Amino acid sequence: MSERAGETAVLRALRAAATAVAEAGRGARGLGTAERRALLAEVDRTATVLATVRAELLLAERDAGTWQGRGDRSFAAWRGRTSRAGARAGAAEERRADTLAAIPGLREAAVAGRASLAHVDAVARVVATGSEAVRTALTSPPVQAELTDLAERLDAGQFATAVARIAARTDAAALERDHQAQRSARYLHVVDAADGTRVSGRLDRMAGHRLRLALEALTPRPAADDDRTAEQRRADALTAMADTILSLPDTVPGAAQTPHVSFLMTAEAWAGLRAARRAAADRAEAGRPVQDDLAGTLAAAGPVEPVTLEDGTPVPASEVTRALCDCELTRIVLDAADEPLNLGRTVRRYTGAQRRAVLARDGGCFWEGCGMPPRWLEVHHLDWWERDGGETSVADGVGACSYHHHEVHRRDLLVRRVPLDPSEKGAGARRVRYVVTTRDGRVVSGVGELARAG
What we know:
The protein has helices at residues 9-26, 33-64, 75-83, 87-102, 104-111, 117-129, 132-138, 141-153, 156-170, 172-184, 205-217, 230-247, 267-285, 294-301, 317-325, 352-362, 385-388, 402-411, 447-453, and strands at 187-193, 196-202, 307-308, 314-315, 378-381, 397-400, 414-419, 432-437, 443-445. With 454 residues, it is mostly helical. The protein folds into 3 domains: 29-170, no CATH class; 208-218 and 237-243 and 258-329, no CATH class; 352-453, Orthogonal Bundle (DNA Binding (I), subunit A), CATH 1.10.30. It starts with 8 loop residues before the first helix and ends with a helix.
């Protein structure tokens, strides 16, 4: 490659390195396993480092104002045009750059390889849409340290849920206002046409969650000869729901069936909600001004630990209070180590209450890196029922997706629970982790956890 006029040494070195990596990529199929994986890990880390450099260059260009004068409506539009990635990609890059600048701890973690770009983008979305209180909290040193720790321990999907929980903890009022805005925008269109009935609509996220659970309950894993698409199976499930409601003898206009949804509420969350409502009542009794909605009450109360779904997603306070008004409660008592206590069953099959307790503790599949949501999981006996004489208890249960549950039995693997260190307990959904080994002690999942366990 010929040297270009005015080109700096950094540019020449960068171009040479890119050429060398490209050549290595062309020969990837000829590399050994160890070399291929090492190169892949280093390419991932380098791509993240380059993204942080690009972020700094973008902010410098934006601040200099030299991008103006070409007819672009915004800096994001200019970036999308000059990179040929489009305005949406330009806006995403600008949002990522602002986030890295505002949260230097996250930038350092990304450069060091402890956080991926997906982790950064999860925070960027919250920074872009969150309230001023949330943005301020995310830039504080303690929360930056918490974000870095979570990014190192959680995959991007779990990390995004954890960041949402931090935002809800910081500004419960904003979560409630957003929920009410979603409810105000809800609609459902059912239009009869010559070619069929068209259904379209929009629900708030909590209503959507209940609908998804109902559809999943009526769409079990298809049999081998079931050739329906996923969309067709959901459509059939919706029809089945309608048929079931219409066939009930007590169905009358306006009748309702209570959905089965699990809310996880810690003692701190319960105390926080009660304190917020009690403070509002005290202000009213004293003749002081009182907010006329729950969002205002929460805003006046300050940070409140959120109630969550099984996967850690924060639940708006109004949804919690509504459920507490008309629901079946299952109390899951935790000991000092955050372990749900044995519910005392002696049968082989786990009851609904036991399953909820297991998933409340595990937050996901036991296999490291598996992102299967809790609602899809089965419960595996750590001490196998038929092989080890294991009991059907919460202590002996572990959440497992169908595939990894099958793998444990197929490969005759051992699963061991490893409690988290107190320093690791934060906004993540998990309370424990697991190490999976073969009968001869070879670790096949959970290497990091095994190292911490010594």
